[in-house]
Every structure is written in C-alpha cells, then in structure tokens.
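Hi P.,

Sorry for the delay on this. The queue was packed all week, but I finally got your sequence through. Input first:
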Amino acid sequence: MASSSIIIPPFLSASITRRNLLLSTTTIATVSPPSPQTPPSPDVTITDRVFLDFSLCPTYFRSDPSATLSSTTPCSDSTPLGRVVLGLYGRHVPLTVSTFKLMCTSSSSSSASYKNTPIHKIFPGQFFLAGRQGLRRDTAEVGPLLKSLPRNTDVVNSKSFLIPHARPGLVSLCLSENDDDDETRLDPEYRNVEFLITTGPGPCPQLDGGNIVFGTVLEGLDVVTSIAAVPTFKPSEKIRQFNDFAEFLGDERAQNARSLWNRPLKTVYISDCGELKVTKPSLSPSLP
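Then the structure:
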C-alpha cells in the first residue's frame, strides 16, 4: 500500500520547512470557536416614580370582620414610619410597571389599590411581602377580581427575569413567592399584584428566576430597614417538626398553619401611595 504524503507546490517548497509546517498546524488546532454572543443587559432606565407611605399599628387583626382597611380609618393610634420612593423600570417590563402604577394611583375605595393594605409577611434579613389578594376582610387584603387591570404578559417573557435580587431595596413582582388565596388565583379574571421589597443586608438568590425585579428604592431605604425589624410570628422547633410531619402525611392543615409563619405581630400598612411627577423621569437621582 502506498503511503499517503503531503504534496507541496514547487513555488512553496523553498519557503516551507518541516518546522514551519508543524507550527502552522499547531496554530490551526488551537484556534477556539467564536464564543456565543451574550444577551443584552436589561434596560434599567427609571421611567416612573411612585411613593409608598408606611404606618405602624400596635395590633394586627381588626375587631370588626366586616370592615377593611381600605374602607375605614385603618388605625386610630397609628405611627408613621416614613415614605419610600420607588423608581420603576418601565422599559424593561412595561406591563408590570403600568399595573403597579395603577395600583398606587387608584382611589382607596377601589379594590385595585394598595392604599390601606398591609404588609402581610416579613422574612428578616431578606424581604417583605405586600399586596396579597384574598377573601378575608378582617386582614384587609387587596380585593380580588381586579378586572380593570390588563393581563400581564411580562410573566411569560424570559427576559423579564434577568435582573437578580442582588441587593437591598429592589422591588419585585411575586410569582414563586406569591401566596394569594387559592380560590382567588383560580378565578379566570385573576390578576397578580403581590410584590416584595428586598431588605438586605445581603442578596436573595433564592428569588432569582422566579420573580420579576421591576424597580428600586430611590429614597427611604431606612424605612425599609425599620419595617424589616418588626417582630414576626416564629413557631418553635417542635411545632416546625410537627408541621413537616403533618405535611408529609398529606394533612392540608399543615399548609394553613404555615401561612401564619413570618406574619408581623403589629400591623404595618401602606397608609398612602401615588405617583411622583418629574420633569425628566429618565434621569434618576443618586441611589442611597
């Protein structure tokens, strides 16, 4: 069998040596394929500003189960905690931002309003939750069936989830952390308006990929910190173990009992909210 050989044209034989040929083949072998293009960074331009005023009430449950915080004076002896100003990323998730703005600017007599609704859970060192929908009028939740709100298609766009929960003061639409009533969520007209604000001091990577960051705290991070310090209901280790065992057995009461964990022992509620008009909304001030 004839051995295979490399045929070199006569006009190249004078300039190509065995060493040059080896070097050229080594160079070709080590050339790596072009790296795939990284997706563009999310546009975090602040297009809108809203404010949330928070107050503290010494008690949690109301004595009158037929009343709601949105229809009556929420607390006769409340203490103002301060104002939180939020900058919203309207170019990144426009539908999420427009819905949040509508919930902040609607009248308190409407069910589509955050005004006079409570923060219903606080996870110390991580985040707090607000805007829960439910049928329990004594806990003053956001009224269900928010038919006036458009459907939010941002939740099915993978690009909406690109911003990580990497620092305190980020505002996020609750999806994986959503705890609205099951009966409310099964309604065809259901609209999700529950949100969270990260409180720090560290990041919350467990929230990434399952919740949509749509804004940041511009002013009032100290108010957020004070809310995070409100004491919450913490079950004993024995109760936790019993609850885990009950859940393992398929007892539905286990989940109902767990819904009370991390609830604040005092009512922290949104006493007022609205939009802040500025001349050039895309120019954001220095972050705290």
